[in-house]
Amino acid sequence: MSTNIGADPVLLSAEDDQVQAERIRDRTMKAATMRASAARPVGTNTKDPDLIRDRREQLIRAALEVFQARGFHATTVRDIGRAAGLTQGTIYNYVRSKEDILFLVCDRVIAEYISSMEEAVAATGDPAARLREALRGVTRVMIEQSSAILLVYHESHNLDRRSLRSLLARVQGWIDQFEELVAEGLGRERLPKTKRSLLTNIVTFLPALIALRGWALPNDLTHDQYTDGLVEFMMRGLGLDRPNNGRQHLRRAS
């Protein structure tokens, strides 16, 4: 065991926190994979749930890469297996088809922004602060997962109706939970439910602009600048925030 005598203890602590956060997120995403299988069962020949979870995690990561590069129709199960380091025969122990893999990929993307909202719900602070953090979380996911989100928009139509209904139900559940944050942040008495629902759909879809219209957006802004600008725009639109001393968040990187 080696010891870095000259290491800054503050930096080491920050690195430890980051590693811990990544481990927690990894466990959360693997759990999400298992929830997806429960919502829309995916056939398997293996009874070990840990092994199923780990192998499907490999498949999701590999499929994201290959689908983005080649598209769903041009990709074969063998291509995914090659990227995952698994034989085609091994893959069929954990899924039944290429469509099963696409379903797990789409559900993973949805799980990412559900997780970001759940973190905001669990946070302390006033309702407006939790809403701000939820908006920040979903915007950050849209930025970090923009290629995967674009993949979902392009390829999810290849799924059967049962799979699509399962995914849409997950999205609707997320929207419903987000609406609770909006209701708490604005005050339930301020707006009727129909208007709250409209506002919620607007603010949860607006960050997708980054994925869907990324080709037209400035490329000299940092992720933080995009996030700050969009979150302030949405909070001000909801009537919950004001400019901070006239400072412009969407400043270009120097």
Name the overall outline. elongated
Question: What is the string of SSEs from the N terminus onward?
Answer: HHHHHHHHHHH
How many strand elements? 0
From the N-terminal CA to the C-terminal CA, the straight-line distance is: 43 Å
Share of helix, binned = 55-70%
Count of the separate structural domains: 1
CATH class: Mainly Alpha
Helix-strand category: mainly alpha
Q: Flag low-confidence runs.
A: 1-5, 28-34, 243-254
Radius of gyration over alpha carbons?
Answer: 20 Å
Q: Under the CATH scheme, which architecture would be assigned?
A: Orthogonal Bundle
What is the CATH superfamily label? Tetracycline Repressor, domain 2
CATH level-3 fold name: Tetracycline Repressor, domain 2
Count of discrete alpha- or pi-helical segments spanning 4 or more residues: 11
Give the amount of beta strand, in percent: under 5%
| Average predicted local confidence, pLDDT | 82
- Main sheet? none
Can you walk through the features of this model?
This protein has 254 residues and is an all-alpha fold. It has a single domain (24-237), classed as Tetracycline Repressor, domain 2 (Orthogonal Bundle), CATH 1.10.357. 69% of the residues lie in helices and 0% in strands. It contains eleven helices and no strands. It has helices at 9-39, 49-70, 77-84, 88-91, 98-122, 127-144, 146-155, 161-186, 193-205, 209-212, 223-237. Helix 1 crosses helix 5 and helix 5 (98-122) crosses helix 7. The longest helix is centred in the N-terminal third of the chain and has 31 residues, at 9-39. It is elongated and about 55 Å long. The N and C termini lie far apart (43 Å).
